[in-house]
Prior knowledge:
Blueprint: H1 2-14, H2 16-36, H3 51-62, E1 72-78, H4 88-101, E2 107-111, E3 125-132, H5 141-155, E4 160-164, H6 177-193, H7 196-224, H8 228-258, H9 263-290, H10 298-329, H11 351-355, H12 359-369, H13 371-386, E5 394-395, H14 407-419, E6 427-432, H15 439-451, E7 456-459, E8 463-464, E9 470-477, H16 484-503, E10 507-511, H17 513-547, H18 551-576, H19 581-584, E11 592-593, H20 596-624, H21 629-656, H22 664-696, H23 705-710, H24 733-739
Parallel strand pairs: 5-11
Antiparallel strand pairs: 1-3, 1-4, 2-3, 6-9, 6-10, 7-9, 8-9
Helix pairs in contact: 1-2, 1-9, 1-10, 2-7, 2-10, 4-5, 6-7, 6-21, 7-8, 7-10, 8-9, 8-10, 8-21, 9-10, 9-17, 9-20, 12-21, 13-18, 13-22, 15-16, 17-18, 17-20, 18-20, 18-22, 20-21, 20-22, 21-22
Amino acid sequence: MATFLYKVGRLAFRRRHYVALLWIALLTLAGVGAASAPAAGASSFSVPGTEAQKAFDLLEQRFPGMSADGATARVVFKAPAGEKLDSGANKATVEKTVKDLGDGSEVVSVADPFKGKAVSKDGTIAYASVKYKVSGMELKDASKDALKETAQQARASGLTVEVGGDALTATPETGSTEIIGIAIAAVVLVITFGSLLAAGFPLLTALIGVGIGVSTITALANALDLGTTTSTLAMMIGLAVGIDYALFIVSRYRAELAEGREREEAAGRAVGTAGSAVVFAGLTVVIALVGLAVVNIPMLTKMGVAAAGTVAIAVLIALTMIPALLGYAGKKIKPIGQKSKLLGGGRAKSAEKSARPNMGTRWASFVVRRPLAVLLLGVIGLGAAAIPAASLELGLPDDGSQPTSTTQRRAYDLLSEGFGPGFNGPLMVVVDAKDSKTPKADVTTVTDKIKALKDVTTVTPATFNKDGDTATITVVPDSKPSSVTTEDLVHGIRDAGAQVKADTDSSVLVTGTTAMNIDVSQKLNDALIPYLILVVGLAFLLLIVVFRSILVPLKAALGFLLSVMAALGAVVAVFQWGWLSGLMGVEETGPVMSMMPIFMVGVVFGLAMDYEVFLVTRMREAHVHGEKPSQAIVTGFKHSARVVTAAAVIMIAVFSGFISSSESMIKMIGFGLAIAVFFDAFVVRMAIVPAVLALLGKRAWWLPKWLDRILPNVDVEGEGLRELDSKDSDPDEDRELVRA
């Protein structure tokens, strides 16, 4: 591996014009494809195997034209203070608005609030329900604009008019802090490298990689049904790892220069050593992201695969374009320890300052002397941070979690005020009586059983299809959609349906957005353990190959679990309990997004293994070359701690930039990933890992002889490079690389 990548690095350094042109051509091609591709909204959402999805599918068959998964909008009206909606002018405005709402080509029906009894008891609040032919993901912008314009015209008459429902599904906005995150990354890179030019390379290559990845996703979005969240996630992860991977290779290049190597040789050795670590770190991230497919939620699978593709591009760019750019830079990139003249380079250092060990060396020496104390402090600290995770409640965001500045949130609040909190999350009960001899009697039985349950406000009369073998019943809970009480009601209706099934030949299914959210949460919970086993198991095997050790990968996996539990605890404290919610822009606390635990496990595991690979491979490299275990730990920190710290700060800055997103899911993901990287990089990898290795000593690198014989030798440490002649490469080396 190291020898092959060494040749790749030297080839890219020499043939830099071709390499640069290749990546620019790919970026241009992806950009043209994205610009010419038809626009696509958020991806359609389906959850195979859940009861809610089965009910949706059944409604499509038995109620043709009903558009069970079609978008809905609730246009909510509120009369001015002291007035009612059934007065002359107000009523005329509502009726005109209802008429205008029905003019759209994608509109199926509009329910008049006065005819459908959709007026509150005090007569001040009413709503008109709009049903569309297609889902909110597929609704045309023209239909959304018409809906907004109609509501705005109604507001001109003096009424308060807000629009809720999924018809106004919008592209999430990430806010200005995303740019601030990149700016912080730039500052960290300048401080790390002491050179504006060297700092610019990781940023440039990361932006090119993200540009190719996101543009490709945009170009394929319509064909593959990829949503806006998919590209946001790919950008978030691709930007972070792209900067980090390039950072490690540039840093190793400068270290090789400091050892007196020629620039082409230094580029080859940087790619051969740090590049090997980049390949395996990237593989762990890809495994974690692609592994999301085990959940069997198409949207989540697409998000994982798309983000994994962007990570793969980041790896390839780091291995090829970075050495090419280093070739262009020439002598402008200084050896490690030297700064550019613009940033104070060329000044003579005192002998005392030059001989002083760097911060990484001093910290590692302290940990080696006090390993048990550092280990206990780190584990106890993360354990304390993880305590709130014991109160974790899962759910999916609804309009109640939107910012109060949005019309969806204001409509949600008005409906709660006029009709009760459960009105925002009605349940649809579907009775399949096709095999029953008495369908109407069975539906009546179901209705009576539902009315007898707790937390039920309203049960509407059943609506039968044309064949009379299927009926729908709308149930309005007494509690808000995301509450545990509503979840208990869904399970209660399903239990009652099971009794009906046992006594008759009719099946009862519960669906609707609220029931679908509950089913998704359950599906994600059920998939968490299998996902952990798959991802951690595969990465564990990969790390055994990389480190040729059993205990080092085991320690890496256990440390990851600590950091992820602590991060989940922080997410619960902020988004569920409301700690620091104002600072984070969380306007409404509630259940944690149901896909957050499994998503955090996947992404954070891959990123955590990045630091493990980059830090510990340098320790193993020193150990393989003859250093004692304790000294190898100090050596590893001497060369890697500064760079790993910079990489972690960059990742935290990039992820934190998404906390300002208007989309609650993106906000929570950004915060969760940022705090998880903080815990994993600075507590687990920088404190717990060296402490455990110091306590284990030589046993850390133990591997059974039989396993050592069968494992492939991937040579991440670059042992094979020691046998290479450091002279200029052979002219035929390019052809040898092609044959390899």
